[in-house]
């Protein structure tokens, strides 16, 4: 491989990927000629263009399958036989192929294999057997998940042609539950930026506006689900990698407590054994109930029997009371180092007012108690203990993508204003790790007291400082990263759209503030969202409360 340039290897992979899209699923020139190019530099509002309907590639039944139903409704119709697994798989496969042509959201496509799987499921159904609670449901997977005999390159040229020897435990579980795996989705180089961009599969674009980031690191999932190329996708999250694509693309997303949803057996850019700061797997979808549907189904299998890193803790059903309870809701304060853009501030404030109007008690949590900036400093100190990701880049000679450089530069600017970890500089590796653990415990202890003192049921706040922003400008993820430090379960709920009319004044960061600037005209129409979280291991309560809050915000 040493004599083959990284450019040649990447081009070869791109060519083979394109060839996996059936010719009859390629977009006609009547559609592609309407788009403003280059797509990443022009504000193509793909969702508004309604391309699947105008393309002529879909039957009305296929449009109905991909657009009309929630996950629960799809599963009900699959069980009843109103829909076949094959027609559902073909409909979402075709829509995913169109999404790929517009948004560069896929890495691997398994359309023939998925149809074969769907035929098997339909045959089982014809004999009166439902394979599992997810029978016939197409599910997309982040590229890091391994499928035996297939590739998982993580967007690194040096890892191309690496064939997985076994499937990730969660993949095994999903298949046993009756799901259909048909695509894997795009990620950033290193998995540590909010721009899902790498030198093999290109840059994932936001279907609301291709000039804006789709988020990362599960950005391909966010774009695909928002485009309705998947009814449900699975991402991973160590700093916001499920929740940031969800907020950028306007989907629901759930980060579980670490090790509840099995995360083992994936391709990772990090060194083996770095298990002191854990990622977690979780779903992205277009309705809040599906987050619990997925989690309940996965936990019903006892994931610890498949994955030794998973906790052997079953799903707990929370009985619905006769009348909807009134919650004590903490309201996460704005950190002065990471000020909120006006649309984000408005979305969170409006959500709090709506909850109060429905009789819920809202309790402000000041920034000094939340410790968002301190948690951000701490998390990056953990991340910097491992430099393996950069070695995968140098191994092939490929360049570092712009968003990785931008994150490095942004963190350097932030670190110059933060003193939280200054006292551990110069410590040897073990002593440094121990000191980080002490600081992490101190933040967790402060939050423990807050839950108890304020008798909180749930907390809401911003998922990020901004909505989706221009490519390579997102920067750091302080408001999601806090919850990885605390290891709390967290949901993102879409609540509206940014408006250059309601929030017309630009906002520029001042010295000592970190983050992208607010550009009203650029981000107009981008989704806004709130984040909902509960205490560690209260995953069921998080999803239950998210359902209550979602219904309040929609007044249903």
Q: What does this 3D model show about the protein?
A:
The protein has 556 residues and is of the alpha/beta class. It folds into 2 domains: 6-30 and 49-305, Amidase signature (AS) domain (Amidase signature (AS) enzymes, Alpha-Beta Complex), CATH 3.90.1300.10; 328-554, Amidase signature (AS) enzymes, CATH 3.90.1300.10. Helix content is 40%, strand content 13%. It contains 21 helices and 15 strands. It has an 11-stranded mixed beta sheet with strand order 1-3-2-8-10-9-14-15-13-11-12, sandwiched between helices. A two-stranded antiparallel sheet has the order 4-5. A two-stranded antiparallel ribbon has the order 6-7. The longest helix is centred in the C-terminal third of the chain and has 26 residues, at 429-454. The model has no long low-confidence stretch (mean pLDDT 96). Its EC number is 3.5.1.4. One of its GO terms (molecular function) is amidase activity. InterPro entries: Amidase_CS (IPR020556), Amidase_dom (IPR023631), AS_sf (IPR036928).
Number of strands: 15
Strand order of the largest sheet: 1-3-2-8-10-9-14-15-13-11-12
* Distance between the amino and carboxyl termini: 58 Å
Supply the CATH superfamily name of the largest domain: Amidase signature (AS) domain
CATH class of the largest domain: Alpha Beta
Radius of gyration: 22 Å
Low-confidence stretches: none
CATH fold-level label of the largest domain? Amidase signature (AS) enzymes
Give the helix/strand class. Answer: alpha/beta
Main sheet makeup: 11 strands, mixed
Give the helix tally: 21
Beta-strand percentage?
5-15%
Catalytic activity: a monocarboxylic acid amide + H2O = a monocarboxylate + NH4(+)
Binding site for substrate: 191, 217, 238-241
Domain Amidase: 87-543
EC number: 3.5.1.4
């Amino acid at each position: 491989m040493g004599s083959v340039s990284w450019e040649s290897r990447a081009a070869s992979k791109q060519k083979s990927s394109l060839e996996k899209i059936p010719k009859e699923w390629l977009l006609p020139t009547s559609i592609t000629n309407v788009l403003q190019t280059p797509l990443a530099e022009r504000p193509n509002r793909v969702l508004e263009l309604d391309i699947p309907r105008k393309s002529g590639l879909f039957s009305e039944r296929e449009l109905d399958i991909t657009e009309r139903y929630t996950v629960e409704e799809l599963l009900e119709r699959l069980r009843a036989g109103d829909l076949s697994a094959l027609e559902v798989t073909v409909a979402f496969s075709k829509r995913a192929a169109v999404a790929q042509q517009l948004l560069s959201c896929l890495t691997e496509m398994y359309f023939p294999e998925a149809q074969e799987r769907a035929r098997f499921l339909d045959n089982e159904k014809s004999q009166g057997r439902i394979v599992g609670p997810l029978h016939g449901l197409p599910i997309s997977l982040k590229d890091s998940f391994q499928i035996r005999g297939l590739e998982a390159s993580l967007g690194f040229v040096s890892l191309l042609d690496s064939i997985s020897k076994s499937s990730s435990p969660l993949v095994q579980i999903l298949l046993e539950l009756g799901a259909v795996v048909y695509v894997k989705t795009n990620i950033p180089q290193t998995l540590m930026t909010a721009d899902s961009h790498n030198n093999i599969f290109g840059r994932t674009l936001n279907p609301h506006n291709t000039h804006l980031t789709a988020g990362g690191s599960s950005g391909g999932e966010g774009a695909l689900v928002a485009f309705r190329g998947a009814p449900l996708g699975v991402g991973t999250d160590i700093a916001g990698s499920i929740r940031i694509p969800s907020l950028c693309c306007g989907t629901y997303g759930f980060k579980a407590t670490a090790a509840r949803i099995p995360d083992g057996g994936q391709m990772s850019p990090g060194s083996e054994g770095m298990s002191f700061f854990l990622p977690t797997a979780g779903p992205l979808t277009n309705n809040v109930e599906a987050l619990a549907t997925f989690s309940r189904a996965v936990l019903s299998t006892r994931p610890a029997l498949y994955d030794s890193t998973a906790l052997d803790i079953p799903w707990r059903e929370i009985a619905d009371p006769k009348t909807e309870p009134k919650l004590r809701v903490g309201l996460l304060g704005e950190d002065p180092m990471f000020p909120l853009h006006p649309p984000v501030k408005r979305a969170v404030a409006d959500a709090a007012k709506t909850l109060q109007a429905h009789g819920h008690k809202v309790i402000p949590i000041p920034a000094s108690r939340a410790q968002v900036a301190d948690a951000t400093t701490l998390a990056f100190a953990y991340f910097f203990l491992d430099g393996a990701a950069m070695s995968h880049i140098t191994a092939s000679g490929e360049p570092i993508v712009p968003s990785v450089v931008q994150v490095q530069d942004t963190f350097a600017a932030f670190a110059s204003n933060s003193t939280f970890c200054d006292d551990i500089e110069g410590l040897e590796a073990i002593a440094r790790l121990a000191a980080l653990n002490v600081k992490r415990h101190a933040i967790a202890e402060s939050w423990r007291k807050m839950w108890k003192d304020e008798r909180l049921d749930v907390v809401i706040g911003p998922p990020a400082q901004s909505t989706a922003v221009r490519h390579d400008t997102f920067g750091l993820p302080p408001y999601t990263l806090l919850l990885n430090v605390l290891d709390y379960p967290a949901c993102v709920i879409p609540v509206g759209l940014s408006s250059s009319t309601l929030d017309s004044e630009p906002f520029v960061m001042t010295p000592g503030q970190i983050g992208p600037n607010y550009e009203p005209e650029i981000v107009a129409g981008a989704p806004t969202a709130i984040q909902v979280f509960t205490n560690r291991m209260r995953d069921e309560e998080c999803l239950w409360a998210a359902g209550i809050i979602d219904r309040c915000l929609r007044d249903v």
